[in-house]
Amino acid sequence: MIRLQTATEMREWSQLQHASGKRIGFVPTMGFLHEGHLTLVDIAAEQSDLVVVSIFVNPTQFGPNEDFDKYPRDMEGDLAKLEARGVVAVYLPEISSMYPDGYATYVAVERLGDHLCGASRPNHFRGVTTVVTKLFHAVHPDVAVFGQKDAQQAAIIKRMTIDLDFGTEIILGPILREKDGLAMSSRNVRLSDVHRAQAPALQRGLKSAWKLYNAGVRSATDLKREVETTLKQDAPDGRVDYIEIVDLDQLQPVATIDVPALLAIAVFFGDVRLIDNVELV
Ligand code: AMP
Question: Residue 174 C-alpha to ligand 1 middle, in angstroms?
Fold first, then answer.
């Protein structure tokens, strides 16, 4: 597995692979890898000849009071997992080469970031779209795989690649979960034992709302109340950031679910913020 550190090195490697007719699959990550990430690697491998994974904890997508400094890191462990999974190249850029002195350019997708995580994390998606643009310019992937766990992020990146003619196909991978239903996340290790025990309530709440939806309930208020009730009962220490239902196309809140929709939630346990979602289609 080759390690590439600068955009120039990465780009030159990709150009060589493309010149020999290889199709490049790409999975961008912030590291501290779990099975959710590795499943995206497997999907990328099915869709390409060579898989590149980037590990970069991107400072521009963290707010000033967020957990950039506390974000878990384990570079050697990550590299071993990727090598075992057949990854051919890892891109490990330095912060100073990604954002050198004088850096001033950002990419922003309008409208799709107005609600959900975009509302509670100002500038978060601007940081994501900017770093994904920079990573794509270095890696030149034919296909890139993102997780449904970050559904709003995936929708925004899809929009960006279409709007800005990236020519990279975006594929989504399913949400991988722990045995008790908690969506896998690098941040789960930061939960206290008590909070870890309460955290599966996120998926339980989504599931019970989904059951109501399946039984014919179409009122967003009623479905959101169902999630709220479950969280109050099963996760008393959780502080709800949002429980929202938006249409899948524009990610705008809907009152009645008469179009394909996304039920998405974010809950704080202490300073650890967890997200989860389910499609209502
Ligand atoms: P991150 O390292 O958190 O930036 O995530 C990198 C990629 O992995 C993103 O596309 C995430 O949506 C995806 N991802 C994170 N957690 C999961 C999960 N539990 N299941 C599937 N994909 C995930």
Answer: 9
